[in-house]
User: What shape does this take?
Amino acid sequence: MKKIENVAVLGAGTMGHGIAQICAVAGMKVVLRDIADEHLERGMAGISKSLDKLLSKERIDAATREAALANLSTTTDLPQAVENADLVVEAIPEKMALKVETFRALKEHAPERAILASNTSSLSVTEIAAASGSPERVVGLHFFNPVPIMKLLEIVRGLSTSEETVDAARAFSERVGKEAIVVNDFPGFATSRLGVMLGCEAIRMLESGVASAADIDKAMELGYRHPMGPLRLTDLVGLDVRLAILDHLHRELGEQFRPPALLRQMVRAGKLGRKSGEGFYRYD
Assistant: This one.
């Protein structure tokens, strides 16, 4: 089984810096790469803030915090980021063209031993893998937000993903403290397909006046023990992200995933959820 000690994370946004953090806390050397220094600065600030919060809640100790920060480095140079990687995790925006371009670059610059992973939540791992030139070592590693807290890791097996790669992904999942499920490469996998359908129906209910956003969410939180209602979760994920996933699943799987008109209108109005300050709720 491939041993993973050096990790390159591509993309320093919410998911990328969260993935970098848990790898660093687990004792791996991590290079966080993004296209601009300001993105890297925001990512590292997010990691520091998250580690401080975990420290204040006594989920880690001061030595672990300092060791994690020491394990992290940053760069805007892709070849430099991946040159020593045992695992590369792509966490860039959810656009197939960008992911294909990235995996074509990894074909040139990543070591042949490296496992190549995408954090995609719904796009075809098989299509992404085809761009790499070695699809047997490509796998989906779908983390959940916030990465340091959420326990699930969805391992997505592409058409050509080898058993060795899946086994290494399982071992990596255990090392970073996650519980893994393994799914085959179908649109939306397991989690996004179920999650966006629930969110989509909640938006339709709000659109048709069944109940308020707060009461729809409370129904799922108290009636079904969901830690967060589907509309508040959509705000956390980003309405634009949810719309993109629904558009993709609508094309791939059919009419049941057609995005509600309200969702599309809100995205056009710039009401994207927490990141814009307003979605189904308002945020300071």
Q: What stands out?
A: The chain has twelve helices and eight strands. The first helix runs from residue 14 to 25. The first strand starts at residue 6 and ends at 10. The domain at 191-275 is CATH 1.10.1040.10 (N-(1-d-carboxylethyl)-l-norvaline Dehydrogenase; domain 2).
